[in-house]
Structure formats: C-alpha cells, structure tokens
Hints:
The structure holds 2 protein chains of 2 kinds.
Chain A: H1 6-11, H2 16-20, H3 27-32, E1 38-41, H4 51-59, E2 64-65, H5 66-73, H6 77-90, E3 93-96, H7 107-118
Antiparallel strand pairs in A: 1-2, 1-3
Chain B: H1 2-15, H2 18-39, H3 45-114, H4 119-124, H5 134-189, H6 194-220, E1 233-234, H7 235-244, E2 252-257, E3 260-262, H8 264-283, E4 291-298, E5 301-307, H9 315-330, H10 344-356, E6 359-364, E7 370-377, E8 381-383, H11 390-393, H12 397-404, H13 406-413, H14 419-429, H15 438-447, H16 457-462, H17 468-484, H18 488-494, H19 497-500, H20 512-524, H21 529-533, H22 535-542
Parallel strand pairs in B: 2-4
Antiparallel strand pairs in B: 1-3, 3-8, 4-5, 5-7, 6-7
Helix pairs in contact in B: 1-3, 2-3, 3-5, 5-6, 6-10, 7-8, 8-10, 9-10, 14-15, 17-18, 17-22
Amino acid sequence: MTRPVPGWREGAPERLYVLAGRPAPPSGGAAALDLVTLIVARAAPQAAGRPEQAAALRLCHHPLSVAEISAHLELPVSTVSVLLADLLADGRAEARAPVPAAELPDTELLEAVVHGLRNL
Amino acid sequence: MVRAGTSPARGRPASAPMWLFLLVPPAVTSLCAVAAVLASPATARTPVAWCGAAAVAAVAVTAAAAVRRAPRTGEAVRRSAEREAALCRRLAEQETETARLAADLLPAAVERLQQGAGVEEVLDRVEHTPGTDPGLRDIHQAVLRSVLEAVRAEEDLRESAHRAFVNIARRVQAIVHRQALDLREMEDRHGNDPEVFGDLLRLDHGNALVGRLADSIAVLGGSHPGRQWRQPVPLYNVLRGAMSRIRDYQRVDLHSVAEVGVVGPAVEPLIHALAELLDNATRYSPPQTRVHLTATEVQTGVAVEIEDAGIGLSDEARRRVEDTLARGHAGGIDLDDLGETPRLGLAVVARLARSNRFRVALRSSAYGGVRCVLVVPREHLTATPAPGGAVARAAVLPPRRLRTRPVPTQPQDEDTGRGGATGPEVARAAGHPGSGRTGPGGERGPGGPGVPGGGTPAVAGRSPGALPQRRRRAPAFRARPAAGAPGPARTAGTAPGPAGAPPATPAEQVAPGLRLAAFHSGINGETPAPRAGEPAPGRKGTAP
Lengths: 120, 544
C-alpha cells in the first residue's frame, strides 16, 4: 500500500516527522480515522498550507478513503492521518463513515429462504 | 664610530713636540744628577756622578726609542680604528638582514608553505639582499629551513588530525544514512500502528540529529558535508530538510517559500547551514516562542530569513558572531579555535558560506530577537523540479485523473444517459493504478445508453467513493431478493441494460438445478456483473 518510492528518498531531504508537524499522531485522532474512513474536501486547497494537505484536498474532491489517500501521497497512514486530522479540525475536510460492506439482506431471511427451499 | 674619529685627533698633537719628548727627560735627569753630585759628600761624589751619568744615558736612550717609534704607533691606532668601523658597519648590515628575515622573509615563507609549496621550493624562492655575506646567508637559510620544517611537521600533524576527523565523521554518516533508510522502510511498514510509528519517528529524529553532528565535524575538518545530491531539489524541501535536523522543529513556522529549485551540489551545504542557523534560533529563544522561516526571491538570488523572538544579540555578541563569520570567510577557522565549549554552529555556517558563496547576516528582529538572512546566490538556483515540494509531487498523478473526471461527474448527478459517451474516456483513465473511482464509471459505461434516467440515482448515491468490488457485489445481491417483489424498477438501476428489456423470455430454459447454484454463488459474491446481469432476469422471471 505504501510502497517505498526510490524517488522520494533521492528527491526529498525531509523526514516524515516534519511532514506531519508533530512527532506522533495523537491516539484519539488516529482512532477516529479508520483506514476506510472516507474523506471529502470541504474547501479548496490553499497555496499557503502544507503541500501534502493541499494534495490531499485535491484528491478528496470526491470521497476517498484514508488508505487510498495514503497510497496516492505515498506516505504512511499515520502521517496521513495526522495531516487529515488537522484538515478535519479546521473544517476543510469532512470524514464520512465507511460505506457499509454491502447492503446484505438479513442472514435470518437468507436462512429462512434456504430452509424453505430445502423443504420444497 | 665615535671612538674611531677621536683617535687620529689624539695622534696628531703628539707628533708636533716630538723633539721635546727627546730632550726634556734626559735634561731633567741630568739636572737631577748634577744636583745629587753637588749635594753628596766629596768621598761619594765620583760614584754618584757615574750613576747620574748612567741614568741620564738610560733616559736618553729610552726617550730616543720612544720618539722613534711614535709614528708607527699612530699608524696602528688608525688602522685599528678603521677595522673597528668596518666591523661595526658589517654588524649593522647583519642586524638589518636578520630583522628582515624575522619581519619579512620568514612570514612570507611560512605562508607559501601553508599554501602548499614544498620546503625546498620555498627556500629557493627566498630573496636575500644582494651583497650579503655568504656565510650569513647560509646561516639564515639554515634558520629558515629548520623553521619551515617545523611548520611543515605541524601542518602535517594538523592535516592528519583533520583527516582523522573527517574519516570518523564519514563513518558515522554512513551509519546514520543507512539507519535513516532502514527507519524509512520501517515507517512505511508500521505506518498503520500509531504507537510503533510514533516511536520510529522519534528514533528517526534522533538519528537525524546525530547525522547533523557528524556533518558538522566533517565540515570543520575541511570536507564537504554528508551526502551529494545529483538532482535539483525544490527549495521547499530543502527548508524542510533543514527543519528535520534540529531538535525543536515543531517551533519552526515555514511560511511562504519561493518556487525555485536548488542545484544538486548546493543542496546539502544549504540544508546544513540552514539547520545550524535554525538550531541557533530555536536554542537561543524561549521555548514557547515560534521561529519564522521564509524564503523570498531577491535580485542576487533567494534570501532565506530566520527570525526568532529570543533575547537578541548584544553588541559584543554580535561583534563576536560577525568576527566568527568573517574569519570563516577568510578561511581562518580551525578546530583548535573552537575552545572548551565548542560553538560549532556558526563556525560551520561560516565555512559553508565561504565555500558556497552564501552571504549570511545577523540583524535585530522586530520581535526583539535575531533576524538571520542567508542569501543563496543565483548560480545555485534553478527552476523548481516539483512545485510545492517533492513529497507532494507524488500526488500529481491523481489530480491528472481528476481533470478527466469532471466530464463524468456532471452526468453522474444529472443524467447517466451520457455515460456511454464518457465511457472511452473513463476507460482510458482506468489505466491508472488505483483507479477506485473510475472502475464504477467503466462498468456503468456499456450499460449506460439503455438505462432509464430514473434508475441511476440509487447507484450514483453510493458510487462516488466506493470500490468497484463492493459495488459489484452489492448489485448481485440486490438483484436477487429484489427480483421477487417490487419488479424491474429497482433492478434496472443495478443490472442495467438486459434487465430492463428481456425480462421473462429465456427464463424457462434455465435448468432447475442451476438456480440454487446461482443463488449460492450470489451469496458468496463470486458472480461477476455481466454474468449476474444475464442469468438474473431468467431466474427473476421464474421466481414468481
């Protein structure tokens, strides 16, 4: 998912802790942002902000999961979580609950149908 | 000199009454002898007279000899005076030459030696005053040689000490670099675990600090700092790279940064010099204050400003700092000059500034602290390879996809009838990796033309962020139970084209055993969409 990119190593002298702006993501914020939490941009990316946040906002023009943002930015999920947490705190982005796996019919109903079919 | 002038003057008056010297002593002696003869009794008169005569004769002979030798004595005196004068002159010349050796020749020779010339070469080029005594010249050469050899030995010692420093620093740098790569890999690997990730970041930070120290030692040892960069690096990343190497990076506010790139060879020196300046700024200002970092383009290049809100510099401190920087510019800084509590930072900055032609100035800040300006000359700058920084460049790919998106996004909300038109475009975009959102579009594309407009909003509501797999599974399931009760209106949205048109005709040909198999595969979610679309209506038709 976050494959190491040789270009990153050759091309960027900064380390990840500077990107996030703080040493470790707070556990509360990280818990709130699941891998599959969908993020939607609520504001246009600003030129003055962190470029990674601007890029994330551009990406999140349509809802995009944290995992996908992490993959696109080629940054670890925790770093992305911190960046996104700042965006969420500023109201520049919005988190949505992950899409339910599928709107499966109740298992009871299915079992009842299977039972009925067997009884045929 | 003075005595030489007086001695001939004494000789000349002696020569004039020479005859007096010849006559007076015998005359006086003879008078005394006559007086003695007259005074003595008659019996002793004869022997006294003989004695008087003998005395007169002796005095006369002595006087004659003295007078005869007088000119020769004067000559000797004059000659000795001349020799004395010559010796004094020579002594004066030697004094002058020795003073010249001490004042001019020796420093010049040592300087040439320090510039890398060999001892013999320097000795050959020493210019003695013409006419100097060859013996003296040889002695001076010998003095010069021994001094130069001592200096050379000292220089060699210092150089080898520097080499040892650099060597050790290079080893530390290699370890730090290796560790940084490892840590980056681990950070990627454990990116999902906030606690491990946080610990890794802390390790990474400490590692970067060690790396900076090693870089400083290498620079002070007369070498270049750390790694070399081949490609230009955006200034933004350079500044953040400098921030990564200081302890209190969280206190640094990175403001507007000029969109330029720094050419490869200047990247590492610039990062290191800025890191040292940032470190000073954060170290000498209260911990709750912020340090502002900006970079603006100026006529001669780019000026990077570091402004802190510390106590500022006293006049004396500023003089000392400027002295350090100036000595760095002149190349006079040494490991030995750093003192007991080494203030590496400014010495390193001075050295880097000298070798890379950065200009560094410290002024008072409006906040009361120090405003440090480092001007990067234009020769080190180039067009930025990645506007907004190299890390954000990784996100350029998705925006390109977004630019092709707006065409499908509008029909998504209003009308899916144009989905067929956007099909090829979306399919082209789907070639990109990770095309989670283009997948649904491509899937919908073929079926688009036949879909009634009312059926789509149900899909569009879920479509924007969902993954294709999820959406495929959802219709497959929804098609099944929906088939029983409400009719084709709901199924049309999910199983598009064929679902609407031929509802019941092929249904009777489906073998009864297949229904349950299809049902199970539907539950397991294995059925791909097209196959789910075709047999589905048949079963739908039979179910009621």
